[in-house]
Design the sequence.
């Protein structure tokens, strides 16, 4: 098997300090959490940004400030800014980080229930996001929350509406209202991706570490972090994103997978020829 790429999603747009005081808002807190994850073994940091009061934003300059600070603190790390933002944001708002020409960014692959909210990604929105990423030379990480999302984005790739092979997928399982985090659902999705693709699994909430174990065993990659879950174990809140990453590293060691550094991850993801 190839080495394991670990992604840390360090804050998201929904989780707050009320859920876990270690959730980062400020630039300094974002750098602290990114560095803790990087030093623990994460090759990739998935980035949402907030204003200092915790309000989610897709502001381009806020992204620039945070991304530059993380790059300085974590030399060589792969950064994947979010174009998902928060529910209710317009496509124009959400696209702002693509104006910074990151090497990767997320591209959400369809509308879905998101607990009590609706996360809107209609076909015109997806086409606009795909066009921007093609124009700006950005490799998408295709975020699939539902089984139909995968079929949708594969059809779009065939039409040239989004970047094609090699494709990187992130299967986000366990969101309330979306596809449950089960080994069967993950196996179904993985068996449908094109040859030569890479994939990551994100287990939300209680599904975090069971899905991580599945990803490690099945030869995929793993995402953990405060965006998706805040507990290291039952009733034990993680003190940092680094603790969550370190647990995945321990699982990988026990299950016989080596962990990729950023340079190795770039080769696996097709970012470096």
Sequence:
């Amino acid at each position: 098997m190839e080495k394991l790429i670990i992604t840390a999603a360090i804050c998201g747009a929904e989780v707050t300090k009320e859920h876990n005081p270690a959730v980062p808002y400020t630039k300094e807190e974002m750098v602290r959490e990114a560095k803790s994850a990087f030093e623990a073994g994460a090759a990739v940091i998935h980035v949402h940004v907030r204003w200092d009061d915790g309000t989610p934003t897709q502001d381009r300059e806020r992204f620039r400030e945070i991304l530059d600070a993380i790059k300085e603190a974590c030399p060589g790390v792969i950064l994947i800014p979010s174009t998902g933002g928060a529910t209710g944001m317009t496509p124009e708002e959400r696209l702002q980080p693509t104006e910074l020409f990151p090497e990767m960014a997320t591209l959400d692959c369809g509308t879905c229930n998101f607990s009590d909210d609706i996360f809107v990604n209609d076909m015109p929105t997806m086409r606009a996001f795909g066009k921007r990423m093609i124009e700006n030379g950005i490799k998408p990480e295709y975020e699939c929350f539902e089984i139909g999302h995968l079929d949708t984005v594969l059809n779009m790739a065939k039409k040239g509406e989004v970047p094609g092979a090699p494709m990187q997928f992130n299967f986000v399982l366990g969101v309330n209202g979306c596809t449950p985090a089960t080994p069967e659902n993950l196996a179904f999705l993985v068996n449908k991706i094109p040859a030569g693709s890479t994939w990551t699994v994100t287990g939300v909430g209680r599904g975090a570490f069971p899905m991580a174990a599945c990803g490690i065993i099945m030869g995929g990659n793993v995402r953990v972090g405060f965006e998706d879950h805040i507990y290291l174990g039952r009733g034990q809140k993680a003190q940092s994103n680094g603790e969550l990453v370190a647990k995945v590293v321990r699982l990988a060691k026990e299950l016989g997978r080596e962990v990729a550094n950023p340079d190795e991850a770039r080769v696996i993801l097709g970012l470096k020829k």
Notes: The two ends are 20 Å apart (CA to CA). The chain has one domain: 6-268.
